[in-house]
Amino acid sequence: MRRYFQDRYALSDEGVRDFICSVIWSALLNISLMFPAMLAFYFIRQAVLTLDTGEALEHGALFYLVLAGMLASIMFCIALKQYDSAYTKIYEESARMRISLAEKIRKLPLAFFGRRDIADLSATIMEDATEIEHMFSHAVPQLYASYISIGLVTLALTLFHWQMALAMFWVVPVALLVFYLSKNYQKRTMVDLRNAKLQISDTLQEGLDCIGEIKAYNYEKKYSDQLAALLDGYETKLIRLELIAGALINFSFILLKLGLVSVALIGAWLFVQGRVDLFTYIVFLIVSAGIYEPFNTVIANMAGLSFLEARIARKKEMDAMPIQQGRTECA
Which residue of 164, 176, 194, 271 is most buried, as measured by CB atoms within 10 A? Predict the structure, then answer.
């Protein structure tokens, strides 16, 4: 597993260890968010048994307050560890990545820079480093943690009542299918956007470098029209990407919200038929209200995740560049 993550995301030895810890603590945080629901289940079960038997509650309010305080303390400790692993450690890996890139650029031969625009190269490298840092602190560990936590909860609830579990979790693979089917389209569109942005940057730089010649040959209008056409094309592509990406993200959110609706409807139908008791019905209603939150965070970063592979590929390409050979000492 360490080798897989290290090769796929171009992480250092220390970085891949921190990444796995971030996934584990994020999964534990997702599971710990179910603690209030578990406490509610326990109380509801005791209350339902009390209504059936007519006896007093087994535990008083003080017991539930102490138990709630203990669970809150555990959740707080897990959240602190998750924050440290998902942000502090990831930012340390980002610092190592930036230093490594700077050292790599310092050792590249001058011929490498002669074939490239220095301003564009530096802007691209810094943008990629910033986006990789953001995705690894806010989305990538949370994505794998969502798989783990929802998989464990799905298994537990399936053993508890498979029909209600099916009503709750059928929306998850459908939402993931929408996410992955749109991934290639968003990746292509973001590549087109980047090429259009580079073309605009080159045109602006050309205008600044050749402003005297442009005025001397009365080229202002043609140059302005060319630049305006590039800006209009970039704006059109950006609007199309934002519109389609926003529609897909909202559609995924709506699909996840349908899980609560399906639990309510199918649970009511099973309850009327006597195939599920009141306690089980209430349990699934409470769980379905918050079980999809980890995926909501991932879906909100869908566009960045779609383009993450291209950014990592550029980083790997930079790491694979041959460095300048020769002596490093001054005579």
Answer: 164
Going from N- to C-terminal start, the domains of the chain cover 2-319
pLDDT digits 0-9 by tens, 257-284? 888 889 999 999 998 888 888 878 888 8
The model carries a pTM of 0.78
Nearest to 24 by CA among 85, 100, 90, 110: 85
Task: Give the class (CATH, top level) of 2-319.
Answer: mainly alpha
Place of tokens 């918050």: 290
Q: In whole angstroms, give the CA distance from residue 155 to residue 174.
A: 18
Contact yes or no for 55/90 (Cβ under 8 A): no
Q: How far is CA 204 from CA 19, 116, 228, in A?
A: 40, 16, 11
301 Cβ contact list (under 8 Å, min separation 6) = 135, 138, 139
Confidence of residue 246 (pLDDT cuts 50, 70, 90): confident
Q: Tokens 């307050």 identify what position?
A: 65
